[in-house]
Amino acid sequence: MFFAFHIFAALLIYLSYKSFRGGIDYLNYFKQELAKPQSEFTPFATVIAPCKGMDEGLEQNLAVLIEQEYPAYEVIFVVDDEGDPAVPVIDEIVSRKDAKSQSVDDPGSGDPPLFRVVSSKLIVAPKAIGSSQKVENLREAVLHTDERSEVLVFVDSDARPARNWLRSLVAPLSDESIGAASGYRWFLSEKPTFASELRSAWNASIASALGPNVKSNFCWGGSTAIRRHTFERIGMRDKWRGTLSDDFAVTRTLSEAGLPIHFVPRALIPSIESCSMRECLEFTTRQMKITRVYMPHLWLLSFFGSGLFTSVMLSSILIAILSKQNNAPVWAAIATLVIVSIFSIGKAWLRSKAVGMVIPAASKQTFPQLTLWLLSPPLFLLNSILALVSRRMKWRGITYELVSPSETRRID
Q: What average pLDDT does range 317-346 have in this prediction?
């Protein structure tokens, strides 16, 4: 038994070291990307923002979409119901945009405008039947884009981008060999709770999986840009049909086409909202259920990695506490706990330092990030097990069942 423990402990230490090295690469990548000068590649872009319900801070999230420091672009808000609570907020945002457009068009203002939203509008998508409502919203929205649009940009309503977000996200597409450019989410809470900080620590481990390796990067639907001709060439609108996850579908399609994905640190976006433990578990499990269907190899890796971490760390604690002999297994257990902790805390610190360069408010999460790493793997393990036993999930008030990557059943 102790022989098996030593083998698995050594494997966990090695993987922890690899993860720590990945943290160094992650920080260096941020430094390199943020040192680049501002790009002058600013083709006409269409920003598509699907909305459903009242996200926490929805007005602030949507308002910044019409205040981007970008020469010419349009914003399309899309809902599935004219009576959605988000509609009055969107109407107010659109009205505010019209007032600002008149202001910057005033020839007597003197200074040139920093931004110019050519148009913004609200459209209503049909009710989804064989896909998620978000996917149906996106499929409808791309039919209403301005004919001048060269880049399609997708953003979530619970994300709050900076004013240079659009320019930064579009910049890598100046290289036509790039399939898409993507950012990712970083959870913040104005009133931190244990549940919201645990969700942030859980999500942070996924955020740091992105980086310089364009072949292993993935798209996040809350902050993704793709050239319009690329979108049409790979038939993405048709590929979305029947899917639940817009971003996993884009990632799979780009991978099949041999098109790389560029991660943009400046497009890392804060999602500012609190959550309960139930909501935390619901969110994390939903992500793993989606991963199991769309990227089963990643789900297996998560299952194995979280299972290895949880079993070895728990065994080490039990051996160190319960063993009555001062022998090799006891010292091996203590060494495992210390070494894995050092590498894990180091990785969390490197990641926090990198993210803080883009989202200063994330620096307030340093302590939770340096401590809750211990609970993230057990949560991943629980999520992976729940994803194994069920493919049903509730998302934005709608229950879905994932039949396959190309078939989604809506259950009302």
A: 89
**Which residues, including other chains, have CB under 8 Å from residue 196's CB and lie 6 or more apart?**
187, 189, 273, 274, 275, 280
> CA 49, 63, 224, 86 torsion: positive or negative?
negative
- Report residue 191 as tokens: 């009133």
Q: How crowded is the C-beta side of 355, counted as CA atoms within 13 Å?
A: 33
* Average confidence (pLDDT) over 302-313: 96
Cβ atoms of 242 and 205 closer than 8 Å: no
What is the DSSP code (8-state) at residue 128? P
The tens digit of pLDDT for each residue in 210-263 reads: 999 888 899 999 999 999 999 999 999 999 999 999 999 999 999 999 999 999
Half-sphere exposure of 33 (CA within 13 A, CB side): 24
pLDDT at 109: 47
* E strand or H helix that includes residue 402: strand 398-404
**Residue 8 backbone dihedrals phi, psi, to 5 degrees:** -70, -35
Q: For residues 348 and 201, what is the distance between their CA atoms, to the nearest angstrom? A: 9
Closest CA to 290 of 411, 149, 394, 169: 394
Residue type, 180: A
Cα distances from 37 to residues 40, 41, 64, 163, in angstroms, run 9, 12, 23, 16
Listed in order, strand segments (DSSP E) in 51-150 are 73-79, 117-124
Q: Which two tokens stand for residue 411?
A: 């259950």
In order of 196, 209, 409, the CA distances from 277 in angstroms are 8, 25, 27
Q: How far apart are CA 66 and CA 89, in angstroms?
A: 13
Per-residue pLDDT tens digits for 72-117: 999 999 999 999 999 999 999 888 766 555 444 444 445 544 446 6
In one letter, which amino acid is 127?
K
- Residue with the bigger pLDDT between 391 and 95: it is 391
Q: Residue 283: enclosing H or E segment and its boundaries?
A: helix 277-294
- On the 0-12 / 13-18 / 19+ scale of CB atoms within 10 A, 325 is exposed
Determine the 3-state secondary structure of 305 from DSSP.
helix
- Say what the pTM is: 0.91
Topology of the domain comprising 35-280: Spore Coat Polysaccharide Biosynthesis Protein SpsA; Chain A (3.90.550)
Strand partners, 201: none
- Give percent of the chain with pLDDT exceeding 70: 94
Output phi, psi for 301, to 5 deg. -60, -40
| Domain boundaries of the chain, sorted by first residue | 2-26+296-394, 35-280
